[in-house]
Amino acid sequence: MGLSKRFRKNVKPRLPDGVRIYAIGDVHGRADLLQSLLTVIDADLARSAPERAIQVFLGDYVDRGPDSRAVLDILIERSKSHETVCLKGNHEVFLLEVLKDPARLQEWRHYGGLLTLVSYGINPTMNPTPEEQIELIEGLRRALPPEHLSFLQQLRSSFACGDFFFVHAGVKPGVALERQKDEDLLWIREEFLESDRRFGKYVVHGHTPVSAPDIRPNRINIDTGAYATGNLTLLTIQGDSLLAL
């Protein structure tokens, strides 16, 4: 029993035969970079034609970068012609919370939310008063297309395929994957990042920017800070092979 457990630990995680996954890290309003990577994916699909291709987006589509609205347009359109899995990031959750409570706009500012407003044609002052905050969020409600709101409300917290578990931020060590809470899936940092435990599946995540894809025995982080660095990472997985671009 002990020998077989050690053996299983050393076996590479793998996807089911015939499945290829393309995973993209935190976009944060960089519609230009997202479109470039989708062009790369399309060229790869045309060249190699896998039996089943799944495109997984790890959340944080809005805020910080210049064109959150266009990012959502692209993802919604992409889902009509390709098998896609769009995961929820903490920034999408925050956007929905601000729509319910305009008083949180000042907090949203610190997460780069004013750039999201601008992408919807709303131009806030740098320090809006409480009255202006209400007006700004009312303006956002009017400007937000129904399909964008529906998209944000229907985002999933996680996705599993084969030996891989895709999530925005990470998982709480010591808790079974099926019992994870959204608070951890969307926000966790140090407790997860510093853990060398096996999590039941190999975790693919973003949320915490790194200068290059951070590949560990138990996880890979593909958030390369696209809004600041211009580097949006694409991870391709087939069988037990991982390739980050």
TrEMBL record:
Pfam families cross-referenced by the UniProt entry: Metallophos
GO molecular function, one term: bis(5'-nucleosyl)-tetraphosphatase (symmetrical) activity
GO cellular component: cytoplasm
Gene Ontology terms: biological process: RNA decapping
Stored InterPro entries: Ap4A_hydrolase, Calcineurin-like_PHP, Metallo-depent_PP-like
SUPFAM superfamilies: Metallo-dependent phosphatases
Residue ranges constituting the Calcineurin-like phosphoesterase domain according to the UniProt record: 20-210
Protein name as it appears in the record: Serine/threonine protein phosphatase
Natural source organism: Bradyrhizobium hipponense
Lineage of producing organism: Bacteria, Pseudomonadati, Pseudomonadota, Alphaproteobacteria, Hyphomicrobiales
